[in-house]
């Protein structure tokens, strides 16, 4: 029987990344990511709901997140769900988190002068998308090219 454990989030960091190192020397970063949705209730009132997600990144992803991400940064995270059990004061507790395998930083770097970092990052996002769009390439019949010539 096949199974899939995959989680995808697009959201904003609620606090600066918490960078730690394991005894083996591997970097670990814990993130708190907020995702929001809005809808109208039966009376027509707009309701906004925010969910908070724990995300853990290891090794090189942890190094990158610790260096470049700050509170308010927009990110895309892809990973797997993991539930841990731990004991505190004789009581069993469970924590579900996303162990990230992929991280993409969205939007531009928030400006230090801005008090509204998420809005600044969202405003910069379209410019980053446009700049990253490759120019269309044309290949005439009979043109020889190697795999190294392909830009992706």
Task: Give descriptors for this structure.
OB fold (Dihydrolipoamide Acetyltransferase, E2P); globular; alpha+beta
Strand order of the largest sheet: 1-3-4-6-5
What is the CATH first-level class name of the domain at 7-106? Mainly Beta
**Biggest sheet statistics:** 5 strands, mixed, barrel
Count of helical segments? Answer: 2
The CATH H-level superfamily of the domain at 7-106 is: Nucleic acid-binding proteins
- What is the fold named in CATH at topology level of the domain at 7-106? OB fold (Dihydrolipoamide Acetyltransferase, E2P)
Beta-strand proportion:
over 45%
Mean pLDDT: 79
- Identify the CATH architecture of the domain at 7-106: Beta Barrel
Helical proportion, percent range: 10-25%
């Amino acid at each position: 029987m096949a199974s899939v454990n995959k989680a995808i989030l697009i959201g904003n960091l609620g606090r600066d990344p918490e960078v730690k190192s394991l005894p083996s020397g591997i970097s670990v970063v814990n993130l708190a990511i907020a995702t929001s949705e809005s809808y109208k209730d039966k009376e027509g009132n707009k309701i906004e709901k925010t969910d908070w997600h724990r995300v853990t990144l290891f090794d090189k992803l942890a190094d990158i997140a610790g260096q470049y991400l700050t509170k308010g940064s927009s990110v895309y995270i892809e990973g797997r769900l993991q539930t841990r059990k731990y004991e505190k004061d004789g009581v069993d507790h469970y924590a579900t988190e996303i162990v990230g395998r992929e991280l993409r930083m969205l939007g531009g770097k928030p400006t230090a002068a801005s008090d509204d970092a998420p809005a600044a990052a969202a405003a910069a996002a379209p410019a980053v998308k446009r700049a990253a769009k490759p120019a269309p390439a044309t290949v005439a019949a009979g043109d020889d090219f190697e795999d190294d010539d392909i830009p992706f």
